[in-house]
Design brief:
11% strand; single chain; 6 strands; six-stranded mixed sheet; alpha/beta; Rossmann fold; globular
Length: 264
């Protein structure tokens, strides 16, 4: 396959790789491939980088079949990886059964938990030291808002994350790409993305947040850019101090109520 990439896309990819030092000599990178537009583009992009970077690293691909549907066909992905000279494997994990056993509660969390665990184990078994995921900039912004709305924390995933328990490093080379850019890029290599087998696809909390951002952005064209800027550590302004518990406030309470600290 004659692999090439528009300069704008190459520049965004290089910015992430250089800024966050995502790829080094000797890396064996496992690519998590769902078959969707994002992971397919990531696979293609890393194959381009394998040709163009002056770094000696290897690639291999893995798809987790969560057994949501008997019609989940991965042969197209296999053929695509073969054209790129990337070893490819499919690993079945009964995520559908795990979700059913808990009555469908926390379905997305359960899916992500078992999927990550399976990918980490496969990586260790096959000598990989890094795992590449296709999370893009929209994913990061949505995660940022989801964390604030649903857990009260200002956080999102990072472009590079070291997992000390498994001694693996997760890299996300597409963090400077907008989702629409990846949607447009699919036509570059002519691959038809595999439809997600997830029964909740399009009906998740993430989808709700995605639609909220799009709706608010109609009246505020800079909304998305401001949210993206807010993810940076340098964006932190004045925030309230951490909440104190009763024990920490006891002495101050007695000084206000009785004019002196409580005697031991």
């Amino acid at each position: 396959m004659n692999i090439q990439m528009p300069q704008l896309y190459f520049s965004k990819l290089m910015r992430a790789i250089v800024e966050f030092e995502l790829i080094e000599d000797g890396d064996n990178v496992l690519i998590g491939i769902s078959g969707g537009k994002d992971s397919i583009f990531l696979t293609y992009a890393l194959a381009v980088m394998r040709e163009r970077l002056k770094k000696d690293f290897t690639l291999r691909g893995l798809t987790i079949n969560p057994l949501f549907s008997p019609d989940f066909d991965t042969e197209g992905i296999r053929g695509f990886c073969e054209k790129l000279s990337i070893p490819y494997d499919v690993h079945e994990v009964d995520i559908a059964g795990a979700i059913e056993n808990q009555g469908g509660k926390e379905a997305c969390y359960t899916c992500a938990f078992f999927r990550r665990g399976a990918i980490n184990r496969y990586a260790k078994e096959h000598g990989c030291n890094k795992i590449a995921y296709a999370h893009h900039n929209d994913d990061a912004v949505e995660t940022f808002l989801m964390s604030l709305f649903y857990s009260g924390q200002l956080q999102t995933f990072t472009p590079k994350t070291y997992l000390d328990r498994s001694d693996l490093t997760v890299i996300r080379p597409l963090v400077y790409f907008r989702e629409q850019e990846l949607r447009d890029a699919v036509s570059i290599h002519g691959f038809a993305p595999v439809r997600s087998p997830c029964p909740l696809d399009g009906h998740t909390v993430r989808q709700t947040v995605k639609e909220l951002i799009a709706s608010l952005g109609k009246d505020n064209p800079l909304l998305y850019d401001h949210l993206a800027a807010g993810m940076r550590q340098s964006a932190l302004g004045e925030l309230w101090p951490a909440s104190k518990n009763r024990s920490e406030m006891k002495e101050t309470y007695f000084s206000y109520m009785y004019g002196q600290p409580k005697k031991s």
